[in-house]
Design a protein that fits this description.
The complex is a heterodimer of chains A (about 325) and B (about 300).
Chain A lengths: L1 H28 L4 H6 L6 H10 L6 H13 L13 H36 L4 H14 L3 H15 L22 H7 L5 H36 L2 H8 L4 H22 L1 H16 L4 H10 L3 H29 L1 H5 L2
Helix pairs in contact in A: 1-14, 5-6, 5-9, 5-12, 6-9, 7-9, 7-12, 8-9, 9-11, 9-12, 10-11, 12-13, 13-14
Chain B lengths: L1 H6 L9 H11 L1 H18 L1 H4 L37 H37 L1 H16 L2 H12 L3 H28 L2 H8 L4 H37 L11 H8 L7 H29 L1 H4 L1
Helix pairs in contact in B: 2-12, 3-5, 3-12, 5-6, 5-8, 5-10, 6-8, 7-8, 8-10, 10-11, 10-12, 11-12
Classes of the chains: A mainly alpha (about 325), B mainly alpha (about 300).
Chain lengths: ~325, ~300
């Protein structure tokens, strides 16, 4: 097991170094002088300009600069936002819980709906329900989610007036931050209506963000179940006279779960891509919206730091999924 | 035995590769529907200048946010209504089809070409070349696709061409992997060794022996890749990083329409429906191609 762990971790090290290199090169490729960019529209006098160039090490060779960059990175210094002058890592940390909360709710929606739909479709293979699930999942997979979000706003917020258009919670509530997840914090705060407000704000964004994972999970569940249902041990279970429900829930699903869990783990990247679009549409105060605003304001430290952090997190989650997979399935860890 | 043979007087000649693929393909109703939709869209895009009633960037000061003709206030002058500055929706959608299809095809062509060359190089030379190429592909795969495209556009600056380049880079890894895997499998085979011994050079080996063996998965991946390309380019347009106004691009049109979601449903719904239909059609076609070109995968 230790060997498996070491191999897996050592595999991601070069990739992570590659990402730091990419992010570093990004600073160098951006047109214009970095000090002038930082100074903004007010401009800067030549003496100070020279001093800052020296201070930031821009007069050093590129290789040395990359070394400095790695050194600062190792100390958790990702630079400061040009707009707010706050450290990038601080801004990221304050916004990330909102993105996690949204992503978790989206996955809950996708798994809660996709798993049963996929199972039922496989059990009733060839039925109208099966065709419906397949058609819906292909549509969901092809959905431009930025448009899907606008459509849902049009229907539920504008026509029906059921949900708010944007934000995380109505402004009249002040919820002290305990966990960073508003759904939990609002429950803890004992304010009547705060939880309902937070819930009504998250429903639409979670559905939008969960749509592509839902389509993928439903499709994968169906095909994994179809494969397992054709196995001999299912026939044996039927011959033993077990109930249909027990066969599906205990015998088939448990074995079909391995590919399904893998696919769920692979959705992390999809969620981060989706979060950028979903948060922009719903003005959800998470890291996706922050990144897009950073680009529009030409706030390059935000773009660099954000990219590095998101890349690192996606890698870490993928590693965890890999390791968990090795724990569940000995064949994986011994095949190395 | 002889009886069976003589009974089969109408035994057909072994089907041609194309005919066989087509016979599998046409049985798949979804794939045929996808193909028909794509053909129609290509026709619309190609003849946009002839069939669009107006120029896509012509503004009409007397017709802001006019609804489609069947709704009160609409007229047949603008069949699908007008947008916030009086441009004809139908004309913009038609020209948008031309742009989106061009982007999809251009992105895919570029990434298939570069991806195949990189993959063949990695698989043929192995060693350091392979490690470098595959590690870079790993980095591209690790970063969320849209985030990477955004970073690239941030470096290059917003615009259709830069968005196209960004999406091409994001889509590279799958083609590189397919081509590399094909080289490694084929190079170990006896007929390739024989060809090598008889003095066939590296480039000819790649083109004559290896490429035909990975053509099927490349074609399938490319078809599915067109849908991803169209979707990602539209997302970049929506975020203001792709096609710039006044270009008629579906994603950009949606971004412009966001503020009118409360009073003009047509400017919000129509461009999105076009994106959905186009992407869906390419996905249907891609699934059909996969089943037809690789019957092993299906059964």
């Amino acid at each position: 097991m230790l060997r498996f762990l070491v191999t897996r971790v050592s595999l991601i090290v070069p990739t992570f170094i590659g990402i730091t290199l990419l992010v570093f090169v990004l600073t160098r490729l951006i047109p214009g002088d970095p000090i002038e960019t930082m100074a903004g529209e007010r401009g800067i006098d030549p003496v100070q300009h020279q001093r800052l160039i020296h201070e930031y090490g821009f007069d050093q060779p590129l290789f040395t600069q990359y070394g400095f960059y790695l050194f600062r990175l190792a100390h958790g210094d990702l630079g400061r936002s040009i707009v707010t002058h706050r450290p990038v890592i601080e801004e990221f940390a304050s916004l990330f819980p909102a993105t996690i909360e949204l992503s978790l709710c989206a996955m809950l929606f996708a798994i809660g709906l996709g798993l049963p739909a996929g199972i039922l479709a496989a059990v009733r293979r060839g039925s109208i329900f099966d065709h419906g699930v397949m058609a819906a999942s292909l549509t969901g997979y092809s959905m431009p989610i930025f448009w899907w979000g606008l459509l849902l706003i049009l229907l539920f917020s504008v026509l029906l007036g059921w949900t708010p258009v944007s934000g995380r919670i109505a402004v009249l509530y002040y919820v002290p931050s305990v966990t960073g997840f508003l759904l939990i914090d609002s429950l803890l705060s004992d304010q009547a209506g705060a939880f309902a407000s937070a819930l009504s704000h998250i429903v639409l964004p979670a559905i939008v963000l969960g749509t592509v994972p839902l389509a993928v999970i439903a499709r994968m569940t169906r095909s994994a179940m179809l494969e397992v249902l054709g196995e001999d041990y299912i026939r044996t279970a039927r011959a033993k006279g077990l109930s249909g429900f027990r066969i599906i829930a205990v015998h088939a699903l448990r074995n079909a779960l391995i590919p399904i869990v893998t696919v769920i783990g692979l959705q992390v990247g999809v969620l981060m891509t989706g979060a950028i679009l979903t948060e922009t549409i719903f003005s959800w105060p998470g890291v996706g919206k922050w990144l897009i605003e950073g680009i529009n304001r030409r706030d390059y430290p935000v773009l660099q730091g954000g990219t590095l952090l998101i890349g690192g997190i996606v890698m870490a989650v993928n590693l965890l999924v890999d390791v968990a997979y090795g724990l569940i399935n000995p064949r994986i860890r011994h095949s190395l | 035995m002889t009886q069976i043979l003589s009974a089969g007087t109408d035994i057909e000649a072994p089907p041609q590769a194309f005919a066989e693929t087509w016979s599998y393909f046409k049985e798949n109703r979804g794939a045929v529907i996808g193909l028909v939709i794509i053909a129609a869209l290509v026709l619309v895009g190609a003849t946009a200048d002839l069939i669009a009633p107006y120029s896509p960037i012509l503004t009409n000061n007397s017709a802001f946010l006019k609804p489609p003709f069947w709704q009160a206030g609409g007229s047949l002058a603008h069949v699908l209504g007008t947008d916030a500055i009086g441009r004809d929706m139908l004309s913009r959608l038609i020209f948008g089809a031309r742009l989106s299809l061009s982007i999809g095809v251009a992105v895919t062509a570029l990434s298939v070409l570069c991806g195949t060359i990189l993959g063949l190089t990695a698989g043929y030379f192995r060693g350091v070349t392979e490690i470098v190429i595959m590690r870079v592909m790993d980095i591209i795969l690790t970063l969320p696709s849209l985030l990477l495209a955004i970073v690239i556009v941030a470096i290059l600056g917003p615009g259709v061409v830069n968005a196209l380049l960004a999406v091409s880079i994001v889509l590279l890894p799958s083609y590189v992997r397919i081509a590399r895997a094909a080289v490694i499998t084929e190079m170990a085979k006896d007929y390739v060794t024989a060809a090598k011994v008889s003095g066939v050079g590296g480039i000819r080996l790649m083109i004559n022996e290896v490429l035909p063996n990975c053509a099927a998965p490349l074609i399938v991946q490319a078809t599915l890749g067109i849908s991803t390309a169209i979707l990602d380019a539209a997302a970049l347009g929506f975020l203001g990083l792709g096609a710039q106004p006044p270009t008629a691009e579906w994603g950009t049109m949606l971004a412009d329409a966001r503020e009118f979601v409360l009073r003009a449903w047509w400017v919000v719904t129509l461009p999105g429906i076009m994106i959905l239909i186009t992407v869906l059609a390419f996905n249907l076609l891609g699934d059909g191609m996969r089943d037809a070109l690789d019957p092993k995968l299906k059964r």
